[in-house]
Amino acid sequence: DNSDTAFVTGERAVAATKADPVRFGEQAERPPVFRQLPRGANSSSSSRAKAQSQSKKSQGMSEAQIEAEKDAMEIMRRRVQAQYAAIRSKRRQAGDGFHL
Questions:
Q1: How far apart are CA 71 and CA 54, in angstroms?
Q2: Which of 31, 57, 69, 83 has its CA 20 to 30 A from that of 2?
Q3: Are 100 and 87 a contacting pair, CB within 8 Å?
Q4: Over its length of 100 residues, how does the chain's per-residue pLDDT go in tens digits?
Q5: Taking the model in full, what pTM does it have?
Q6: What is the CB neighbour count within 10 angstroms for residue 91?
Q7: Which of 8, 26, 25 is nearest to 17 (CA)?
């Protein structure tokens, strides 16, 4: 019967966890140690070096850029508030029971 060795899903998985509860003092095995990286993965030492070199290149935005972005966001916020107020007033004038 292949069903016992097949991948367990759904109700059988829940039943299996209830049938085999973890007992007090039970210890887990040590996690596996992978000596080879999976295909397409970079070693952590090279990715750390790459991240450090990128952080040296770009320290983020300057104070002027931060202020310009804050101003742009404030302008966008006020524009959206105005659009929202216009929608609300139209609905009030139309007599819709729906409120925003």
A1: 28
A2: 31
A3: yes
A4: 455 566 667 777 777 666 667 778 888 888 888 888 888 887 776 555 666 666 555 678 899 999 999 999 999 999 999 999 999 898 888 887 666 5
A5: 0.39
A6: 14
A7: 8
